[in-house]
Amino acid sequence: MTAAVAKPKAVNNWRENMKFTTSAMALILSATAALAEDKVTIDFAYPYSHLFDVTYEAMMPGFYEAHPNIEVNFRATYESYEDGTNTILREAVSGNLPDVTMQGLNRQQILVEKGIAKSLEPFIAGEADFEKDGYHDAMLSLSTFGDNVHGLPFSVSLPVGYYNMDIIRAGGIEELPQTWDDVIAACKTMKANGIDNPIFWGWNITGNWFMQALLWSQDKAIVENGHVTMDSPEALVALEQMQEIFTECEMQNLEWKAALASFSAGEIGMMFWSTSALGAVERSQGDFELVTGPFPGLDGAPMGLPAGGNAAMLTSTSDDPKVREAAWTWLKYITSGEGAAEVAKTTGYMPPNKAANEIILADFYDKNPNKQTAVDQLPLLRDWLAYPGDNGLAITQVIYDGIERIVTGDATDMKELQQELAEEIADLLPNG
């Protein structure tokens, strides 16, 4: 069409030429208007901009090339998974929900129970090659409730150790620790050798994740039959282990973002955190050798570890089928093989999509051994559990506050603290 406008053939009469040009321009304008009319905009919200901004930036060119008629409006990011869930609950009341939201794996159920997250079964039924695209049963089970898939997992993480090998060697440590007793011994050796800040242990990570890590290390779930097991012998062991780490290692009480920045700057010898931050650490890493290692256990290797990460959920309230279909298209793209592969490339998360791991990332982990650490721990994967009832987020905060009291030294008697936490939690449980 454009070529015809530029060089009409054998037109001798200028009026004919003008008529031709006017008609062509009308067609162009008509086509442009039709394209604009077909444009669909969807709203999307996700957590942790410092981790995932680079991931979505990497995805967008491919998505827009494949789907030029869909515009994705990125809302303000969630500060944490708890913030994400609280935001969605508020937006459900105000009628301002995004079309797609990213929620922590342990925060999906409450959105399903309240009817906010839509079943994806009608969309999945229309996909002829869904399993071939990497969506196998093990992946879908992470977001299946009542025999209905309500989310597509986007990323999976496990806790790991981060080691500044320059500080480790300067501190007189020859082997990476395998247990928390080893970690404490390493702290003391490093202190004796002039290392002021040997450790950060990520107690303040989202969703009481490290508390659950210490419980799963003993093969104990934090929720059993609707009961939060903070009154169990295993929970007492976990609290006592935390206290020993914090006090014996003389750990600085850092806000978690400050801790990540401090480690990246080369100021902390050992950091225990989620593998999710690996990409961000590598991008801001100072001049030191970085090595990751397995998450230490209590007496030996952990018996289990909680799965972290998030899933994409459809929360659109639009009556327009084009908007709902566009939301599904976006949701499927970011969790598909190509989209999910960017998760591994830009973060330390592992993509749960089988096609991403087995095809696109076939030799990726061989070339990125620091990201292989979490993959090696996959046999230890256990559920990251949410607390039952409408007060689940409040229970999360109760446990968070309790652990903070250990860090600050306000709580010194772990049996007493355990009893206090168990009583507060019992009052918040359904029929408590």
Describe this structure in words.
- The protein has 432 residues and is α/β, with parallel strands linked by helices.
- It has 2 domains: 40-157 and 308-379, Periplasmic binding protein-like II (D-Maltodextrin-Binding Protein, domain 2, 3-Layer(aba) Sandwich), CATH 3.40.190; 159-306 and 387-428, D-Maltodextrin-Binding Protein, domain 2, CATH 3.40.190.10.
- The chain is built from 20 helices and 15 strands.
- It has helices at residues 2-6, 14-38, 49-66, 81-94, 108-113, 121-125, 137-140, 165-170, 180-192, 209-217, 233-248, 256-264, 278-284, 321-335, 337-346, 354-360, 364-367, 369-376, 392-408, 414-428; strands at residues 40-45, 70-74, 100-104, 144-145, 148-149, 151-157, 159-164, 199-201, 223-224, 227-228, 270-274, 290-294, 305-306, 308-314, 381-382.
- The strands form 5 sheets. A 5-stranded mixed beta sheet has the order 2-1-3-14-6. A 4-stranded mixed beta sheet has the order 8-11-7-12. A two-stranded antiparallel sheet has the order 4-5.
- A hairpin with a 2-residue loop joins strand 9 and strand 10 (227-228).
- Helix 3 (49-66) packs antiparallel against helix 15 (337-346), helix 15 (337-346) crosses helix 16 and helix 19 (392-408) packs antiparallel against helix 20.
- The longest helix has 25 residues, at 14-38.
- The chain is globular, with a radius of gyration of 26 Å.
- 44% of the residues are buried.
- Mean pLDDT is 91; it is low at 1-22 and 30-35.
